[in-house]
Design goal:
about 400 residues; 4-stranded antiparallel β-sheet; Antithrombin, Chain I, domain 2; alpha+beta; single chain
């Protein structure tokens, strides 16, 4: 994958994660537990890139800022990213476009779209809903069953992406019941997962702005272009967004960390205890205990439109002349995501969809000085060629036309 695109997508992921910290601060949720969520900037970023390619004015500027790359190169970057994602073991990536039959699409923009579904919106809500939901379910193996977009006669265009990941662990966990004695899960019977292996370097501790975070890399099945899952644990009460942003910085190489091999005995990080023991084997031992989980989340991207470069795009029609001569605006932008972590592996999927509607042509508004001019006596006139400044005609009006 292109490094600049990867870095741009990661920055958007980090900003999205950081927004959770801001939300916690705004709501006064200081206990650090937060609500469960799952999201993917990698599934959203290509859609923003394709919108930027067809946008102008402030919408183009805002989308480029959210993307982290120039709008001129966004469509090509989106195509390359989706192609690269689809080549990763266990990953499926897809895009789809549905447009009303009477909506003219600009040929240049359409030609730059990634390969994928091209279909027609009928305007009938039931018909369109069935077709869109079927696409979402098929592209995600049934993990996401509904397309997160409004449908009906008012929707002119739907642009969507699907991203799905399925991993089988290199070393499966064993299931076991666990019942924490304290904390937010205290007294609850949970589906615990346990594994013992000889790779303590998979456990790292990184210190972010808000404190230390322990990271565990859980590798998928070995092979070229595979994927791993990293579990992140902060101190009790840490804000989710802070832990996530620290983890993102560490796994992307922007923040240094120390492995369990390098750390001294004792309490080495959140949830991590190290000690030196007698053993019949020369290999170090890492004993891991965690819990299985399944999460579903729905994200209304327009609630944070400025984060995703959609503020102007959703405010009024007329920002996308590169997509269509018909004035369009973003009516909805949503993502449905799911993740499951279990003894045998990990699976996650997300469908992101942008719905656009038609409106009146955009009118520009400026602050200007005002002058008054009243012609109430004989006057002259000039006809001038605009390009050269050549005066074509000159005249004088002494006897204007009158009403009979």
């Amino acid at each position: 994958m292109d490094n600049s695109t990867v870095e741009a997508v990661n920055r958007l992921t980090a900003r999205w994660a950081a927004r959770r910290s801001a939300q916690s601060a705004d709501t006064g949720d200081g206990d650090g537990d937060g609500d469960g969520t799952v999201f993917t900037a990698a599934g959203l970023w290509p859609l923003l890139a394709l919108l930027a390619d067809g946008a102008d004015g402030p919408a183009r500027t805002e989308l480029a800022e959210a993307l982290g790359i120039p709008a001129d190169s966004a469509a090509e970057a989106a195509r390359e990213l989706l192609t690269a994602l689809d080549g990763v073991r266990g990953v499926r990536a897809a895009t789809g476009l549905w447009a009303r039959r009477d909506l003219p699409l600009e040929a240049a923009w359409s030609a730059r779209l990634p390969a994928g579904t091209r279909a027609t919106l009928t305007g009938d809500e039931d018909t369109d809903r069935k077709a869109l939901d079927a696409w979402a379910a098929e592209r995600t193996g049934g993990l996401v069953e509904k397309m997160p977009v409004e449908v009906g006669p008012h929707v002119e265009l739907v642009l969507a992406s699907a991203l799905a990941l399925q991993l089988t662990w290199e070393q499966p966990f064993l299931e076991r019941p666990v019942r924490p004695s304290h904390g937010p899960w205290g007294g609850r019977s949970l589906r615990g997962l346990a594994v013992t292996h000889a790779f303590p370097e998979r456990i790292r501790v990184a210190r972010g702005p808000s404190g230390p975070v322990t990271l565990l890399r859980v590798p998928g099945a070995p092979g070229a272009r595979g994927a791993d899952v990293h579990l992140l644990l902060g101190e009790p009460g840490d804000v989710p967004g802070d832990v996530l942003t620290t983890g993102i910085a560490e796994v992307t190489g922007a923040l240094a960390s120390s492995t369990a091999r390098e750390l001294p005995d004792g309490e080495a990080g959140p949830g991590l205890s190290l000690r030196t023991v007698d053993s019949s084997s020369p290999e170090p031992v890492a004993r891991i205990g965690t819990v299985a989980f399944g999460i579903r989340a729905e994200h209304d991207l327009l609630e944070h439109a400025e984060l995703f470069g959609l503020a102007s795009a959703a405010a009024r029609p007329g920002h996308f002349p590169g997509i269509s001569s018909v004035p369009l605006a973003v009516r909805s932008a949503r993502q449905s995501a799911v993740a499951r972590f279990h003894a045998e592996g990990f699976e996650a999927a997300a469908v992101t969809a942008v719905g656009m509607f038609r409106g009146a042509a955009r009118t520009r508004s400026y602050r200007v000085r005002q002058a008054e001019f009243e012609v109430d006596r004989p006057f002259g006139f000039l006809a001038v060629d605009r390009d050269s400044g050549l005066v074509l005609f000159a005249g004088w009006v002494a006897d204007p036309d009158t009403l009979t």
